[in-house]
Amino acid sequence: MKKFAFFIMLAVMTACTPQKLVIVQVADAQLGFMGGERAKTEGPELADDLTYEVEYLKKAIEVINDIKPDAVVFTGDQVHRAKKDAQWDTFIETISAIDKSVTCLHIPGNHDLIIKKNKIVDSSDYKKRFPEDRFIYKNKGVTLVGINSNLIKYNDSLETAQTEWIRKAITKENEDEVTILFSHHPFFLNDIAEEDGYFQIQQAKRQAYFDLFTEKKVDALYAGHLHNSAEGVAVGIPVKTTTSVAYQIGDSKPSIRIITVEDGKVSDELRTL
Questions:
Q1: Pairing relation of β-strands 220-223 and 178-182?
Q2: What is the CATH number of the domain that holds 251?
Q3: Phi/psi zone of residue 6: left (φ > 0), alpha (ψ -120 to 50 degrees), beta?
Q4: CA proximity to 247, closest of 54, 69, 111, 96
Q5: Phi, psi (rounded to 5 degrees) for 70
Q6: Are 50 and 238 in contact (CB under 8 A)?
Q7: Residue 8 within a domain
């Protein structure tokens, strides 16, 4: 009888213990970016130099293996040139050092695909390494959703199908569940009404998506692409753009974002490498 009472008490304590989910966002490793930029002025042989990005990606992996998050989300631009197998091979080999207990999730950035005249013309190199261009991950009362924002940015014919997928994929069984959405392109940088630009989703599309996010009770959005940091809020939903893990365009430093969900609340910090 005492043993039975002990197990009942243990079950109650376990049920009442707040669950914590830890996610690391890695944005824009973009292997080959630094070499490509240097090649423009210092010589074409530097275009294949991946040293800089690999160095910082390894620093990120050291942090990941130290804290052992539940999941790592790579929010696109794994490589700089989608047709360069060496960049993909080096990226895959480098991230293979991540502790096997950690779930790795990927979505494509614009550099992972071939895009010409603002149209996606070839996704095969990305899909050869990562067959899916979106994901849904559920753990500890938290749902992580990753989408292919290239379909939105470049008005692809598959955008409508993805929107319907989002609508069906995000389901909350109770009000305490948390949903976080990841994309490569930020929906906006600071303000939902800001003008169109290279980095963000078109203004004409933003409100419809935020109507959907409100309907599905999305709690937070995280993106990359900017190679700098930015943040804003729309209809109560925080929208944060995480700078590159390596090459910077702006005043940020190579960083990863550590996102924690505990007791139904989302918090995060940028960790400089």
A1: parallel
A2: 3.60.21.10
A3: alpha
A4: 54
A5: -70, -35
A6: no
A7: no
- How many folded domains does the chain comprise? 1
Q: Is 245 within the bounds of a domain?
A: yes
DSSP code, position 227: S
Domain-located, residue 178: yes
pLDDT digits (tens, 9 = 90+) for 124-172: 999 999 999 999 999 999 999 999 999 999 999 999 999 999 999 998 8
The residue ranges of the chain whose pLDDT is under 50 are 4-16
Q: Residue 242 corresponds to which tokens in the numbers above?
A: 């995480």
Which pLDDT value is given to residue 18? Answer: 61
Angle subtended at Cα 201 by Cα 246 and Cα 61, rounded to the nearest 5 degrees: 25
Q: How many residues does the chain have?
A: 273
Assign 162 to helix, strand or coil.
Answer: helix
pLDDT tens per residue, range 114-123? 999 999 999 9
Q: Say if CB 53 and CB 32 are below 8 A apart.
A: yes
Place of tokens 């991950």: 137
Phi, psi of 251 (to 5 degrees): -100, 5
The chain-wide mean pLDDT, for the chain, equals: 93
